[in-house]
Each structure stands twice: as structure tokens, then as C-alpha cells.
Automatic annotation (TrEMBL), chains A, B:
Pfam families, sorted: Bac_luciferase
Organism of this sequence: Kribbella sancticallisti
SUPFAM superfamilies for the chain: Bacterial luciferase-like
Keyword Oxidoreductase: yes
Protein name: LLM class flavin-dependent oxidoreductase
Length: 445, 445
């Protein structure tokens, strides 16, 4: 069988286009509606997607006037989805900066247990000063400090997940011995950021470890990914950029002694699908006309660290913007936006349109064939192991993808006709870690 | 209609008797089996219980040899149960000492959203030095300090839950205005333990606030309950003790300007139910004979702060035990155990038998009629507003209660024949808090 594509469905209220909630078809309070998300996950499962995914940040972002704001905590939401599905993987974002490892490791292990081995964790460091203010801090820890904490956080989580051997539960009713205490051991972690004694208060989970996903593309972000990630989400605007990112990250992974096949790179794509090219373009245009540029300009100004009035809508970006080095927030997203605007000589209004469609991810409008072609092109050109599918409108855009694009990918022999395993690791073709193997791998760097 | 009983089902793996997992009928790995718990919740819902409840502590407790050890994180588990039930309330324990308010308030609000208003939170301060060692600390914060933090934690949680007004979501597609930003406000909390800016990143939940439950019976514990709790779980061995506790807590609640009807007091009862008295006693004896006293003696020694060898199995407790004042852990449980042993002149072996059955809760063996009588006696004698039902064996003990004891309580006109509301607050007869009213009530003390 030829190399197979992986598909993740990135779900977000009424869709990734910021004006999607204004369409007549959209349920504007979908962001707190568990039935909406259960329905989406069932659609993705019908399309045999590897996984569904929720982004997250422990802070209210932006102006509530703009678009559906606030969201259900992802581990809770994914547990509700687990109950409504049977095979699809479930990836939740959680911050290593604003959680502590004992509780979070246990929570992901719990989701893995209740879902029968379908849990994944998108490990993020949470950019921006606003989140810090919800957690007793006046400002965010520095970028490098956040990534240093993230690495130690993961070491602690691995150790906790491995603190029970797989066969620690003896359950010998006759002898009256439930567990073998020699196979449940403290971890006695003492590090720069954490002291955690362990063991975890939960037997080892079906996958051993939930799948580790990473989504930051700064230097430190790529370093963390190369060392720990099993799947990587990334925003890439051009084939050349995506190829460079792909080659770079695979090489970094190999340099750390890991098989580069064990890290799956999934760029985002925001498809707008129509039965004809005209229909797709019409939908895209309808959406773009519903954007209210004031909100977007304010957020852009915040990201670029300038005042909104420094960004006249019909001019290009000012020439004197800060370097990525000076950014303590989301470094790679900052650079992506500035590069996109400069390369395509976009006005602020045009830039806002592009970001409103996919927040920096590649947008693509067309027929199911054209979308499939766009996906296959990158997949075969060494730019992707699969895609993070970010429908502009939900549920209709996901239905169009699952029912019209997926069958084409399947015809081309690039995508499964049914699940062959039951766990998220099996969908991504990744081994179940044994405690021993991991201890070595983690210690190897 | 006469005053109505409230019933909560306290669920724990194979049952509350420590040897229950050794019975032929028991699934010894039920502690990580979501289907087991979904089945239990459906049984309780068929019996029209107000709620199901899970205890919790962020540490592995005791020797894994002894009995099923480790448990699924309760908010995750209850979310999975929410998907398998439609009416029953869902109460999860979470620690104010080892969580932070922003994440936890959001998590409970999320459970409230996905369950359609069925979430409750058993607020505990987590006793013992072992938990602290999983959270960067060498020892637990002092008892008074933990309760001080708990009170501030609750103030922050209330403020976050109320940071979105109920009608903040306008969802005006035409005008392109999703939320009314004037109705979503930061909380700007600055206190001894926390600085939290807010607002929450989630619209207000169906119940406004999840139901607040409290379960510590020390002086500070009762103070916290009187001020904040809407239901109280408590371990009481005798009618006289239960009456005194009930009168005391209702008086404390009234003294703070709260209607004492708004705090429901639920002592625990561990029923062992048989078709005949002999059958019940036979089951009780079978269970007690399966206890292995070494494990229990070690734990008792830890609680009493003596060495195991200071507790010969066939002698009474040593005379010179510490006062409750000297205990920084679970003060009220300590006193309950010592009082029980001294009052009934129990040997260590007998005490272990009593604690093995219900960990200090009232145990009661008998026919369904006798169990119903025991419940009604306390209910009518001013000792209880209802009961925390802790079956010795699960699922069989819960089935016996739901199918044989509940119908008797119903015949006596003391328990619902069906749910009349859809939320946990409605089951307990408690109002949905409006942001205004609560701000006043909380500020009143
Ligand atoms: C598809 C995708 C999803 C992401 N989701 C989140 C998220 O949910 N929360 C978050 O804090 N960062 C998320 N990020 C990462 C941020 O965009 C940003 O890169 C990161 O916060 C900062 O890392 P960096 O400085 O290494 O780029 C995501 C990135 C991608 C590509
Ligand atoms: C039914 C019941 C359930 C309880 N569940 C928990 C629990 O899950 N976690 C916990 O830390 N304490 C729990 N407690 C409270 C402890 O028994 C103990 O009272 C408390 O940790 C210390 O509070 P105190 O010193 O005020 O008594 C529970 C108490 C009762 C009566």
C-alpha cells in the first residue's frame, strides 16, 4: 500500500471563517452546544478522519462582539464526544504554562481510559500577557522560559504515565492482592520547575501515553516538537515554505535519534468547497463581505504591537515593525503574518480578509477535485504527511469534505476506507510506548 | 406534599466495603471502567436519585495491594456519565488546595453546559502531606490556611461564573454583533491567595453556578459549609451525634443570614441489604471475613499518628493519642474514629471491621423495610435532609436500594416518583442564582 494521508478535523464553533456565524445556516451559540460538536465528530468519523481537535487558551480572546466567544474546556468536551463516537481520535489543547503536571497528566490519562485509547494532547505554551493575568501573574513568563517549562512538564507527565507498569493490577481475589506494589513506583521528580513525587493515582492507560501533538513553529517550538511531538500542526502559506518546514523538522527529529516517520506533519488548510468553482468563490465572497474590519484591525494591531490608527485599511503594513526576536508572545504566527503581507503586498484590508478566512492558514476555494488536488500536491511534494482540515463553515464544510473530498483521496489510494485500529496511535501508525522504551528515548537527548 | 428526602449515590469502584472487590460477583478493574460507572448512574437514575457523587484526592492513597486503587478524574468521568443519562445530578470532588480557580471554575461550568445543568462540586481542602508532594510542596499547608484559601477560591469562582450576564450573547447576525461586551466584565480579583483578572472564557452555564457541596466537619469545615454549601456530606455514627451536627450547621447557616432550608444535610449510610435479616447479616459477615487486617492497621496507624506495632489487633486503642487540635490533616475524621473506638470499647480488630465496612460512616444491615425505617427515623428526628447512600457492594447494593428501598420511601410519601425538574438545583429544591443576588449574599458576611 502506498504511503497514506492523515486527516485531522480542527473544529471551532460555526467554522474557521470569522464571519461564519452570520450565515443563515449557522447556529450562533454552537460554541457551547455539545450536540453540535458530537454531530461534527460523527461526520468526521463517517469520513474516517484520524482525529478531531480543539484549540484552547485559558483566557477570553478578543472582543465578544466579533464572533462566538468562550468555549467548553476541551478535555470535558472531548469526553462528551467520546461517548458519541467509537473510533475517531480526540485531541485537546492544554497549556503547560498554566497547568500543573500531576493534574493534567491524570486528566489526559483519564480521557484515554474512558475513550478506549483515543486521547491526544496538543501541548502549547500559551502566548500573550492576558492569560497570565488569570493566574496570579502580571505578565507572561518569557518565551524561552515557557518552552523550558514545557519540556520539563512533558518529562514529568511521561514519568507519571509510566509510574504504573501495564501489568501492575493483579486482581487476585483468592489471595486478596489487588495490585503489585513493586510495579507502582514513585517518580521522585526534582527539577527547575517541578517537584513531583508520584506515582499517578490511575493505572496505565490504553495508549500508555496519549498522542503528543505540538503546534508552535518558533525555533523553540520546533525544538520541542523534534524531541517530543508525534504530530505537528502548522500554518504554511506556500508550498516552498511548507517544504522547508517539513524538511527542517524531519531533520531535527532525526538528529535527536528519532525515526522521522514517527512525527507526522500536518499543515492547516481552510477549504471552501463548492459544486462548481463559481459556487465556491461565491461562498468565499459572501463570507468575506460579512467580516467587520474594525474588530480584525484591533486584533492585528495587538499582534503587531502598534496602535489601530497606525494601520489605515487601504495601505500596506508600516515599514518599521518589530523583529520576531522582540516578540515574547506567539513568535511564529507573528512572522507568518508579516511575511504574508509583505510578500503579496497586501493592504491592511486585504490582509484582514486573508486572516479572517483562516487566521494565517492556507485558504483554498474550489471543487472537491481541486481541493483533493491541492492536498495531494503538497503530500507528494514532501510538504505534508497529512492535513489539519479547518472548514470555513461548520457543519456544512466538514460534510462537503467528508462526503466529497475524502472519496476522491480514497480513489487515489491515499486514504483509508475504514479504520484498521481502535486507538489514535493506531490511526497515525504510531507504536504504543512501553515504559522502558520511553525512558530511554526521553533520556537520549 | 410533605417534606421530601434527598438521595445521593456515592459511587466507588466495586463498593464501599474495602473487601467488596474480592466477591465473585465483582469486576475487580471496575475503577477504570467507564461502562461500569455509566451502568451505576443509570441504576441510580432509574431510582430517581438526586445525584451521583465521586470522592477524589490528587494522590495515590494507601497500598495498591489492598483494594482497587487509582481512579478516573471525576469531571472527566461525570462527563462520560452525563452522555449516558439525562436527568440525574453529577457531583465531582475537586481540591481548592491543589487547583487554581480559573481552570477549575471553567471546568465545572463546562460540565454544567454539557450536562444541561446537572453539575455539582464537592469542595474539599485535601488532607495529608502526601498530596502536597505531588504539587511542588514538602508538606501540606496548615489546616486553617487551606480553609482560608478555599473561601477565597470560592469567591473567585463565583465571580468568574457571574462574569458573563445570562443575556450577554446577543447573536445579532444582521448587525454582526455576537456578544454585548458591556455584559461580559473582568472580575479584577486581588486577594491573599489569588489575583485573577477574568472574565471567564465561557458564557454563563445553565445553573449559573454548579451546586456547591462540602464534606469536611471540622470547625473550619463547618464554617465554610455554613457560608457556601448547598449540600453537606457527613459521617455520623449515632442519631444523637447526627442531630447535634444538623442543628449546629443549620444554626450557623441562619446566623450568616442564609435560609437554613438552602443547605441540605446528608449523612452517609452504608446499607447491606438482604431479602431477610439473615441474608443481610450473612453478606456482611462474608465481606468482613474477606478483610485483610494488616493493610487496614497500617492506614489506621497513619491516621492516628502512631506506629502499626502500637496497635495490637486484640487490644483497644492506646490511651495517649493526640488531640484534634494537633492534627493538620482531616480533623473531623480523626475525631470520629477515636470517639467511635472509645465509646464502643472496640479492639483494633473490631474497629478495623467497622471502618472497613464504611470508613467511619454509619453501616446498617437489614431488609429493605429496615433500611427504609433507619432512613426515615433520622429524617424525621431532625438529623438529616436526606442521605448519602454508600452501597457496600456495587452494582448489586445500588440495585437493591433503587429497586427495593426507594419504592418503600415512595409509598410513605417521602420521595419523588419522577423528576420534576431537569437540573441538579431543581432536584435539591434550590434556586438558580442570579449574578446580582449572589454578589450580595457572598458579600453579606
Ligand atoms: C493549527 C494550530 C493550532 C494551534 N492551537 C493553539 C492553541 O489552541 N493554543 C495556543 O496557545 N496555541 C496554539 N497554536 C500555536 C500558536 O499559533 C503559537 O504558535 C504558539 O502559541 C506560540 O508558539 P511559537 O512562539 O513557538 O510559535 C496553534 C498553532 C497551530 C498551527
Ligand atoms: C461523604 C464524604 C466524602 C468526602 N469526600 C472527600 C474527598 O473526596 N476528598 C477529600 O479530600 N475529602 C473528602 N471528605 C472530607 C474528609 O473526610 C475530611 O473531612 C476533609 O478532608 C478534611 O476536612 P476537616 O478537617 O474539615 O474534617 C469527604 C467527607 C465525607 C463525609
Amino acid at each position: 500500500m502506498s504511503r497514506q494521508l492523515h486527516l485531522n478535523a480542527f473544529l471551532m464553533s460555526t467554522g474557521h471563517h470569522e464571519a461564519s456565524w452570520r450565515l443563515p445556516e449557522s447556529n450562533p451559540v454552537a460554541n457551547t452546544d455539545v450536540a453540535h460538536y458530537q454531530n461534527l465528530a460523527r461526520i468526521a468519523e463517517r469520513g474516517k478522519f484520524d482525529s478531531v481537535f480543539f484549540a484552547d487558551s485559558p483566557v477570553l480572546i478578543g472582543d465578544v462582539g466579533r464572533r462566538p466567544a468562550g468555549s467548553l474546556e476541551p478535555t470535558v468536551l472531548l469526553t462528551a464526544i467520546a461517548a458519541a463516537t467509537s473510533r475517531i481520535g480526540l485531541i485537546a489543547t492544554a497549556s503547560t504554562t498554566y497547568n500543573d503536571p500531576f493534574n493534567l497528566a491524570r486528566r489526559f490519562a483519564s480521557v484515554d481510559h474512558v475513550s478506549g485509547g483515543r486521547a491526544g494532547w496538543n501541548v502549547v505554551t500559551t502566548a500573550g500577557p492576558d492569560a497570565a493575568k488569570n493566574f496570579n501573574l502580571a505578565d507572561q513568563p518569557a518565551h524561552a522560559e515557557r518552552y523550558d517549562r514545557a519540556a520539563e512538564f512533558l518529562e514529568v507527565a511521561y514519568a507519571l504515565w509510566d509510574s504504573w507498569e501495564d501489568d501492575a493490577t493483579v486482581a487476585d481475589k483468592e489471595a486478596g492482592v489487588w495490585g503489585d506494589s513493586a510495579r507502582v513506583q514513585p517518580i521522585d521528580h526534582v527539577g527547575r520547575h517541578f517537584q513531583v513525587r508520584g506515582p499517578l493515582n490511575l493505572p496505565r492507560s490504553p495508549q500508555g501515553h496519549p498522542l503528543i501533538v505540538q503546534a508552535g513553529s518558533s525555533e523553540d517550538g520546533k525544538g520541542l516538537a523534534a524531541r517530543y511531538a508525534e504530530a505537528v500542526f502548522t500554518a504554511q502559506q506556500t508550498l516552498a515554505d511548507a517544504q522547508a518546514f517539513y524538511a527542517d523538522l524531519k531533520a531535527r527529529t532525526a538528529a535527536l535519534g528519532r525515526d522521522p516517520e514517527t512525527i507526522k506533519i500536518l499543515p492547516g488548510i481552510v477549504p471552501v468547497i463548492g459544486g462548481t468553482v463559481e459556487e465556491a468563490l461565491r461562498l468565499e465572497q459572501e463570507l468575506d463581505e460579512l467580516i467587520k474590519p474594525e474588530y480584525a484591525r484591533q486584533q492585528l494591531a495587538k499582534t503587531l504591537r502598534v496602535r489601530p490608527e497606525d494601520l489605515p485599511l487601504d495601505r500596506q503594513l508600516p515599514a518599521d515593525l518589530p523583529d520576531e526576536d522582540e516578540i515574547e508572545g506567539a513568535k511564529s504566527r507573528y512572522t507568518l503574518i508579516v511575511t504574508l503581507a509583505r510578500r503579496e503586498k497586501l493592504t491592511v484590508r486585504e490582509l484582514i480578509g486573508r486572516l479572517g478566512g483562516g487566521r494565517g492558514h492556507r485558504t483554498f476555494s474550489g471543487t472537491p477535485e481541486q481541493v483533493a488536488d491541492a492536498i495531494v500536491e503538497w503530500f507528494e511534494a514532501g510538504a505534508a504527511d497529512g492535513f489539519n482540515v479547518m472548514p470555513a463553515v461548520l457543519p456544512s464544510g466538514l460534510e462537503a469534505f467528508a462526503d466529497h473530498v475524502v472519496p476522491i483521496l480514497r480513489q487515489r489510494g491515499l486514504f483509508r476506507t475504514d479504520y484498521t485500529g481502535t486507538t489514535l496511535r493506531e490511526h497515525y501508525g504510531l507504536a504504543r510506548p512501553s515504559p522502558e522504551r520511553l525512558t530511554t528515548a526521553v533520556g537520549a537527548n
